[in-house]
Amino acid sequence: MESINFAKGYGKVNPAEESNPISPASRRRRRIIIIAFSLAVFLTLLIASLITVLLHHSASKSNPPQLSSNSADPLKTVCSVTRYPDSCLSSLSPLNSPPSSNPLRFFNLSLHASLLEVASLKGQLPDAEAAAKDCAELFDDAASQLGRSAESVRVEPGVAVLTEMRISDLQTWISASLTDLDTCLDGLAEMGSAAVGEWKVKVQRAMEYISNTLAILNNIRSLFQTFGLAMP
């Protein structure tokens, strides 16, 4: 009897074993689908991040930082971009009549003040000093560079004044005049007479005026934006 029962039970399998197992091909397809989905999600997040960065960069370029502006006193706003605001105010205040808020006019006034200051130096040279001759030549060159700059911004009506090329030329010429005065001071460094000391102060004041002129030029675009004016 036991042999018969054994024979009847032989060959039976567990119902769980009757279900078809997942084939290797199906596993590979499932793995590929999961990987593809993960890559799609990753690429979507990456593209979204790049778009966010580009939009932020574009917004930053289209909205440059503005200078703090005091509409009641444009001259102070202009002089605030310079390294020597006190000398900027003292040199431009007498010339700013009638009052203006045009950055180009302030640049021209500062350039004019610088040219007058440099021109006055030559007549104050201490004749007894050996460096006077060298400084006289340097002053002539500095005055020539500033005069060239002043002539450059005198254009016919309707002609663009502050083009990229003209701004670059102005920066070169004004910087050259500043270098001329600095070279003169270097030649006086070893002289300790009282006359030279007083004269060096005057040269340094002229250098401050020129430095202010260059600073106004370097910030001219921001100044026009601050005052809500179009570049000429």
Please tell me about this protein's structure.
25% of the residues are buried. This protein has helices spanning 2-9, 15-18, 24-62, 74-79, 85-92, 103-122, 132-152, 164-188, 194-218, 220-226. It is an all-alpha fold and 232 residues long. It contains 10 helices and no strands. α7 runs antiparallel to α8. 70% of the residues lie in helices and 0% in strands. It folds into 2 domains: 15-62; 74-226, Up-down Bundle (Butyryl-CoA Dehydrogenase, subunit A, domain 3), CATH 1.20.140.40. Keywords: Membrane, Signal, Transmembrane, Transmembrane helix. Pfam families: PMEI. Residues 70-216 form the Pectinesterase inhibitor domain. It comes from Salvia divinorum (Maria pastora). This is Pectinesterase 3-like.
Secondary structure: elements and pairs:
Layout: H1 2-9, H2 15-18, H3 24-62, H4 74-79, H5 85-92, H6 103-122, H7 132-152, H8 164-188, H9 194-218, H10 220-226
Helix pairs in contact: 5-9, 6-7, 6-9, 7-8, 8-9
Protein name: Pectinesterase 3-like
InterPro entries: Invertase/methylesterase_inhib (IPR035513), Pectinesterase_inhib_dom (IPR006501), PME_Inhibitor (IPR051955)
Transmembrane segments: 32-55
CATH class of the largest domain: Mainly Alpha
Provide mean pLDDT, rounded.
78
SSE topology string: HHHHHHHHHH
Q: How large, in whole angstroms, is the Cα Rg? A: 38 Å
Low-confidence stretches: 1-19, 59-72
Q: Give the count of structural domains.
A: 2
- Termini separation comes to 116 Å
- The proportion of residues forming helix, as a percent range, comes to over 70%
With helices defined by DSSP (H or I, 4 residues minimum), what is the helix count?
A: 10
Number of strands: 0
Query: What is the H level of CATH, i.e. the homologous superfamily of the largest domain?
Result: Invertase/pectin methylesterase inhibitor family protein
The portion of residues forming beta strands comes to: under 5%
CATH fold-level name of the largest domain: Butyryl-CoA Dehydrogenase, subunit A, domain 3
| Sheet having the most strands | none
User: What does the overall shape look like?
Assistant: elongated
At CATH level 2, the architecture of the largest domain is: Up-down Bundle
Structural class: mainly alpha
